[in-house]
Amino acid sequence: MSNNRKSNSTSSDGREAMTGKHLVVADKGFIFVGDIEWQEHPVLGAFLLITNCSNVRKWEHGGFGGITAGAKTAEATLDECRPQYIPRHAVVSLSPLAEGWLND
Q1: Which of 2, 36, 74, 88 is buried deepest, with most CB atoms within 10 A?
Q2: Of 78, 84, 83, 82, nearest in space to 101 by CA
């Protein structure tokens, strides 16, 4: 199972920059899936940009591990949405997803 995370860039403080398709758990229980990229705003600070974004409204099987394994397998309901800008402090969890996560 291959991973869709791109690991060829490094942040200004030397840490590996996380990019690619991820499952993002945000504050207040929101769960999004999409391509992520950390960005910096001169006034507001760091935030996570999620593009090609869907909100995971619900899933029927497998708990959190089930939804990370695949959308169709977990019988997930995904709602397409506009790009999301999430402040760093509101990001609870990031889970990299394998290619084919949608199980089409």
Answers
A1: 36
A2: 78
